[in-house]
Amino acid sequence: MSATVNMPASRAIENAKQTGETVLSDASSAMKSAAENPKQVTTNFLQSPFMRGAFPFINGGLAGMTATTVIQPVDMIKVRLQLAGEGAKTGPKPTPISVVRDIMASGKAMDLYTGLSAGLLRQAVYTTARLGFFDTFMKTLTKSAEAKGSKIGFKERAGAGLTAGGLAAMVGNPADLALIRMQSDGLKPVAQRENYKSVIDALTRIAKNEGITRLWAGSYPTVVRAMALNFGQLAFFSEAKNQLKDTSLSSRTQTLTASAVAGFFASFFSLPFDFVKTRLQKQTKRPDGTLPYRGMLDCFKQVTKQEGLLRFYRGFGTYYVRIAPHAMITLIVADYLGFITK
């Protein structure tokens, strides 16, 4: 009886031993192959299905973070312009130059880079998802269209841009909120400033003092803004490149031209929502526990009544200077990374 029991046990041990030897042999062969031909191993890894699916997201995040590092001072100026004269038609009318002069007068030129950590985190989350989703949707739509013997058009590009922007905005809202809080903190009286040390400090303190759901304050206009921005940026970039591909312009010139066109339409469609997003994310509770704005529609209503319709487009030039180069740098870097990782 014991012999009968021991035979399967000994067989199992033998099988396990053989499996272990096989695994070790395979690992040894893989290591030897990597040592002899590291380029081939790297190529195989980069061409794996997992990496092929991840590249659009990785490339998008790296492109967005590169652009934010360059554009952050302009974004700081844009936020200060949007918050100036809140609640009054005849309030202060700052210019980009006066905002820079005021910041420089404080003796802290690096204040122009306030919130950079939040901006980079936002790009790492938001742009990674935005460009990654868009590229994934476009590949799926292209494959589906080719199977039907047709080509995708502007409608499909616009739909992909709107969907990608909306999904990414929800994911990136906490970092966006932290960025606005850090950039607007310097407008408060010294005694009331939070003096956030980093984006992690801002997120932690906001969640602790105001509740974790507050991290998604202004998410509605953020999503609408992102959809409008992506509709203008991604759809028009893709469409412009498609229209320019048969021209005599070089590939680089086509990309630059398409990026400039995309930046203009992205700015035009998204600025009103960006304005409202900034106001909602900056607001904190009054002493009586109420908020200045009840939501996106209430903010639109109050600003229109108290400050006028044109207030939504205050600083359009600054916004375009912030959006267009950011769009151009992001799209060009993403385009280049997409080319080298094909």
From TrEMBL:
Its main location: mitochondrion. Solcar repeats lie at residues 51-140, 152-243, 250-340. It is found in: Mitochondrion inner membrane. One of its GO terms (cellular component) is mitochondrial inner membrane. PROSITE patterns: SOLCAR (PS50920). SUPFAM superfamilies: Mitochondrial carrier. Keywords: Membrane, Mitochondrion, Mitochondrion inner membrane, Repeat, Transmembrane, Transmembrane helix, Transport. The chain crosses the membrane at residues 319-339. InterPro entries: MCP (IPR002067), MCP_dom_sf (IPR023395), MCP_transmembrane (IPR018108), Mito_Metabolite_Transporter (IPR050391). It comes from the Eukaryota. One of its GO terms (biological process) is transmembrane transport. PANTHER family: MITOCHONDRIAL DICARBOXYLATE CARRIER-RELATED. Belongs to the mitochondrial carrier (TC 2.A.29) family. This is Mitochondrial dicarboxylate transporter.
